[in-house]
Amino acid sequence: MFNTTGTGYLSRTRPVVDTAPDGAWRLTLLVFDRLGPREAEPWRVRWVGDAARAWHAQHQHLLEPGAVLRVHLERARAYQGQGGAPEIHARVISIEIEPKRPPAVREQLSNQEQPASVAA
């Protein structure tokens, strides 16, 4: 299974707390990966279970738009999002909240996390 780790920014969309189909507690966040000055990729990430509930109870007061999240994810898949725009869905392994950064630093960090090209 392919896992990914990166820094993203919490959207203006409020976090959603609900129940997964199997009855487990679930947290859903919309996080943006800043690809450049005018380009961002949406990631809808879901965290299910007791660890998610405990993390949310401890950090929910920090979940405001623009919060800097260091996310470790698994099972990333591309889907058609609202309005037909593509969006990545993934399951959370862990999340850390980092201090907010100035725009210039955000852009620099986003550019550093771009995957290296693969030679054929």
Compact overview of the structure:
The chain is of the alpha+beta class and 120 residues long. Helices cover 17% and strands 50% of the residues. A five-stranded mixed β-barrel has the order 1-3-4-6-5.
Proportion in β-strands: over 45%
Superfamily at the CATH H level? Nucleic acid-binding proteins
Lateral strand order in the biggest sheet? 1-3-4-6-5
Number of domain modules: 1
Helical content class:
10-25%
Order of helices and strands: EEEEHEEH
Structural class by sheet pairing and helices: alpha+beta
In terms of quaternary structure, the protein is single chain
Cα(first) to Cα(last) distance is: 22 Å
Low-confidence stretches: 115-120
Q: Over all CA atoms, what is the radius of gyration?
A: 15 Å
Q: Mean pLDDT, as a whole number?
A: 86
Question: What is the β-strand count?
Answer: 6
Please outline the helices and strands:
Elements: E1 3-10, E2 16-19, E3 25-36, E4 39-48, H1 50-59, E5 68-80, E6 86-98, H2 103-112
Parallel strand pairs: 4-6
Antiparallel strand pairs: 1-3, 1-5, 2-3, 3-4, 5-6
Can you walk me through this structure?
The protein is of the alpha+beta class and 120 residues long. The protein has one domain (3-112): OB fold (Dihydrolipoamide Acetyltransferase, E2P) (Beta Barrel). Helix content is 17%, strand content 50%. The protein has 2 helices and 6 strands. It has a 5-stranded mixed β-barrel. The chain is globular. It starts with a strand and ends in an 8-residue tail after the last helix. The model is unreliable at 115-120 (pLDDT under 50).
